[in-house]
Amino acid sequence: MLATAVTASEGVQQNEASPPGNVHVQSTWRRRAVWSALGTGATIAILAGFATQRGDAPTPALREHPPASAPAVVPAVSVPSTVPAEPASKADALFEEGMAYRNGENTAVDDDKALASLQQAAQLGHGNAQYYLGLMFGQGRGTEQNYAHAVRWYREAAMQGVADAQHLLCLSYAAGRGVDPDRVRAYAWCEVAAKHGSLDAHEPLKLIKKTVQGPSLIAAQRMAKEILTEIAGSAGARKLTSPDALSARQF
């Protein structure tokens, strides 16, 4: 039994059996978002099956169109402790407002206003807002394109069980967009996304597995279990304690 979530024009649906905040964007919209957020060259390189052999450096295709403004690596961020999220209604209202401006629902498309509303909702711990804020940074909508910022927000949403964010985080690690290429983490996040119901994560997972063998595969599978355990044991949506604070994640 599927219950339709917010932003029907985006085709977002939520599976009642899935973890809270676990949203799935219908295939056409999801693929467009992935291509735009990661760059077509990187996505094609991933889906083509990683032309390099195990242990080789990433191919030029994986580095095609490098981000102009984003650092290659997301540095560790020291963050004060989090506090429980604001009442859901406030974050939900900001999220819906941001999506309305983003998609032009009953108003003109306004990326600046969309970014501002989504960022407020994301700071209040709204998982879907964190995911779409990551897309805004990845696509360069309402702001300069910045893959590192995109990855930070994908990670926040991913740790709340948002499967599409987990899938994009997998591809980001695989392509080295906003982070150093890391196939162990790429495998772990694709496995987590697949377990949370992302159908699009299955094919990349198979491809990445061909390049991650032996101890690396064991480490990747262990990491996936640790991530799943942390997500399952989390207290749900969390508010960040300052506008610029982002959780320092080990995954």
Description:
The structure is a single chain. This protein has a single domain (31-64, 82-236), classed as Tetratricopeptide repeat domain (Serine Threonine Protein Phosphatase 5, Tetratricopeptide repeat), CATH 1.25.40. Helix content is 51%, strand content 6%. By secondary structure, it is mostly helical. It contains ten helices and five strands. It starts with a strand and ends in a 12-residue tail after the last strand. A hairpin with a 7-residue loop joins β1 and β2 (12-15).
Task: Tell me the total number of β-strands.
Answer: 5
Amino-to-carboxy terminus distance: 32 Å
Please state the average pLDDT score: 75
Please identify the structural class as seen in this structure.
mainly alpha
What is the CATH domain class?
Mainly Alpha
Helix content: 40-55%
N-to-C series of helices and strands: EEEHHEHHHHHHHHE
Indicate the CATH topology.
Answer: Serine Threonine Protein Phosphatase 5, Tetratricopeptide repeat
The overall number of domains is 1
Low-confidence stretches: 1-26, 47-84
Shape assignment? globular
Instruction: Kindly report the name of the CATH homologous superfamily.
Output: Tetratricopeptide repeat domain
Biggest sheet details? 3 strands, antiparallel
What is the annotated CATH architecture? Alpha Horseshoe
